[in-house]
Structures are given as structure tokens and as C-alpha cells.
Amino acid sequence: MKFLILTTLTALLLSGCSSYVGKMHREFDRADGKRRKPRKHGDQFDFYRKNARAPKNGLVSSSNNKVLLPQVKRNYQSEKRIKADDLNDNGSAGSLWVGGGDDNFLFTDNTKKSSGDIVLIDVESRLKNEITAELKRAFPEKKKLKKKSDKEAAAGDAKTAEAPAATPAASQDGNKDQVFDRISSIVIEEINKDHLLLRGRKFLLFKNKKRLVEVQALVPRREITDADTVSSSGIIESTVNVIR
């Protein structure tokens, strides 16, 4: 009798546990089935059809959405707005008579210069004297060991005093604008819209030896001629350096 009762209780416990475990497995499978529910893939061309199939609750209307996005994404490029003033002939833009471009024009030559352009400097008397003075300063005459007598020294002083008096007379001649030489220079910097900075080098013969001289000059643009030359008299400021 005891054995029968024990067997019955054991069977009931096992059946209850098995049913409970089975119920849990069914709940797990049901939950996995909800998560792994197959996804419905619509036709990829429905988006472009006029009567696209869409749920009614997903319709977009202006009542619940103030901003309606376009169906087709467009790539817009910003462009300059054209005004009525842009159609007028303002200033000298594109003129055939005013040199405002990089090339020659129909009735005039271009005088606009930029960095890297070549300009010839006409060396006149003032710049020539500056170059000569700088050469003499860099290569002074060697003093003679033999002392001069008092009479020779006095005669030399008299000649030296007479020499400067002849220089102004020579400068008053008609050759004051005489071009003694030319120096090829390059525009190294545009100081502003009206002035350029030039730099050029030239070999000169001084005391039977070749010397290299560098000239740097600040010139106005208006002084540059159509032939790409500028007179040294039009130079605002210049520096002369003896390289070797």
C-alpha cells in the first residue's frame, strides 16, 4: 500500500514538472517566432509608381506634418543671382582701349605688369652716379706707399676742388636724359595697385675687372612704357648692392 502511494505521488510530480517545462518551451518558441517573424519585402519600384501600395495609417498629409519631403532627392547647386546692373557696361571691363588684361588689345598695348614680368631699366645720370659711388665704396683705391711732396699735394687738392665745379655744368647740358646703359629687371612684388618693386642684376667693368651689381627699385606703374621699359628718373626709391 505504501509502495503504491509513493509511486502515484512520484508520477504526479514528474507529470507536473514535464508539463511545466513543456509550457515554458512553448512560450520560448512563441517568443522566438515573434522576433523571427519573416520580413515582408515590397517591390523596390513601388516607390516610383504613382499608386504605391502603402498602409493608410502611414500616409503623409499636411495636417500632421508641416514639412513634406520630396519623393526624389535632388542635388541643387548654388548659382550667382544675376541683377540688372550686371548687364550694364561698368567701368573699363572688357574694353578694347584700356589695358586691363594680360594680353595686348586691338588699339593699344598692355602695360599691366605682375610678378615675374621683365622690365628694362634705362640707366640715366643719377642712377649711374649711384652705381659708381657704390663701386668705389666697395673697391676703394689702394693708397700709395710713396708720400707726395707738399707741392704735388697742393696741386692735387686744387684739381680735386675744380672737379666738382665741372660736374654741374655737365648736368645742365642737353644730355641729362642720356641713357648710359640698360638693366634687365624682374617684378618681384606688387606693392599695391599703383607701385611695383623691381630687381635686376648686371655685370659692369670697373677698374678693368668685371663686377656684378644688383639694383632694386620702387617704381610707379604709370612710368612703365609700352615697350616694357622704365626710366631711372621715374624711380621713387632705389638701392644698389655690389654682389662681387
* Number of alpha- plus pi-helical segments: 3
Share of helical residues? 25-40%
How does the major sheet shape up?
6 strands, mixed
The proportion of residues in beta strands is 15-25%
Could you please describe the fold and organization of this structure?
This protein is an alpha+beta fold and 244 residues long. It has a domain at 114-141 and 179-244. It has helices at 2-35, 125-138, 150-171; strands at residues 118-123, 181-190, 195-206, 209-220, 229-231, 237-242. The longest helix has 34 residues, at 2-35. It is elongated and about 155 Å long.
Structure, briefly:
By secondary structure, the chain is of the alpha+beta class. The chain has 3 helices and 6 strands, in the order H-E-H-H-E-E-E-E-E. It is elongated.
Structural key phrases:
single chain; 244 residues; alpha+beta; 6-stranded mixed beta sheet
Fold blueprint:
Elements: H1 2-35, E1 118-123, H2 125-138, H3 150-171, E2 181-190, E3 195-206, E4 209-220, E5 229-231, E6 237-242
Parallel strand pairs: 1-5
Antiparallel strand pairs: 1-2, 2-3, 3-4, 4-6
